[in-house]
Amino acid sequence: MEAMSVINNTIIDIMFLDIEMPDITGIGFLKSLGNPPLTILTTAYSEYALESYELNVIDYLLKPIRFDRFFKAIGKVLSLLKDTDSAVIVKNNTVKEEYIFVKSDYKALKISFNELIYVESMQKYVKFHLKDKMIMSLMSLTALAEILPSSKFFRCQKSFIVNLTKIDGIDGNLLLMNNGAKVSLSKNLKAELIKLIDKNNLL
User: Which domains can be identified in the chain, with CATH numbers?
Assistant: First the structure.
């Protein structure tokens, strides 16, 4: 399906999704996505509301869609994007230690770059995979990518950022991380990653 290919290979901030579609329902399509973007469902039928919220959609708009409801839904998205961009509290780039502090469960947690293996986007959240634990924070992967140093971190596809020093190998379109995880690599970015690894003698 063309739409699925676009979503899986493109960074999308928000998706408007109709429930009634020719080949698959909007609910079914949303369930098929491993890491869907922020989603607003539109439909003429109210009976899908409960199931849609179980899928963590941002809003549910009934047709015909009134402008005030559309405006309110967009406001929710903008508010969420604003909050996620401020999730990083402190960034330190000293030679001795590089780290950031992020908000998680009403706490400010320190994440050392040396301990960070990779970051995974989880719709409205990101999951930091560290050496011996995981930390969830409400923020966007795009905002985080602008903060992490490009000399050490690489966005290998729309849902993952990897620590270049934690890559043990490349198997086709999979990155073999030093904690045993396998992270998918976009075919369009493979040559760029290999060039970066060779330049810094990382493998």
Answer: 2-85 (3.40.50.2300), 88-199 (2.40.50.1020)
